[in-house]
Amino acid sequence: MFEITLFLCFIGAGTLAYVLVPLAIARTKEINERNAKNLALKIDVHLQGMNLQKAYRLQLLAPAAFGLAGFVLFHDARVLGVFVGIALGVIVPRLYVGKLIRGRRAKFNEQLMDALMIMSSSFRGGLSLIQAVEAVTEEMPEPIRQEFGIVLGENKMGVALDESLNRLYQRMPSPGLQQMITAILLARETGGNLPLIFSRIVTTIRERRKIEQNLQTLTVQGKIQAAVMTGLPVVFVFGVSATNRKFFDPMLHTPDGQKLVALCLVLWLVGALSILKISTFKDV
Fold this sequence. Notes:
Strand content: under 5%
CATH class of one domain: Mainly Alpha
């Protein structure tokens, strides 16, 4: 009787695995494809030129490269190493793309004040709004030249100006740009002194930048703490390994030790990101 019960349990478990495993694989594939599509869409919207090519290469190669590295480094737990490597290969491209997008937006915001001054001078010279935007594309460097060039290109293709400006704000959100777009749209409908409004927006951006610099000065202590706490475990590992090369062998060459190392890496990363998140302010 016991043998029959065991056999039936085995058959039931096998049938359940036969049904669930393909569903889990299909679901995982669907999630990965959706995440890859969302990341690709985010890359297409926010990045241009060489940065776009780098992001695409990293997105395609990182999971395989990190998975192979995990397979090589985790001798006694290769399956775990592959999973950890693939997870890092998915996370690292997102972090890299986010860094590129933040850098491009920061550079755009730095150039926005000069662009507004050029547009204000163009309005005083009797030029129209489209001609003022063209003056910005002719005199300003990347990335603001490319972003305003996209607005001009969409306008020439028949896209409404307010829609093009809203798309620009979606790519490069900032309070200064929002004020500029609002002023332009209101002036087109109700009229107004755009040169004076733009001068006030420039003053607002300048004062806001001073406040942001003060905030960065006040949060530098937290950032230094994040750097020290993040680097301390690494320095400890290298320091101990330099004096005793076999000290970490139980952690590196046993399955339980490798699992603990993987857990330590995850907790180390979570702690570093948490400290950095606490010590940074969000621009709204």
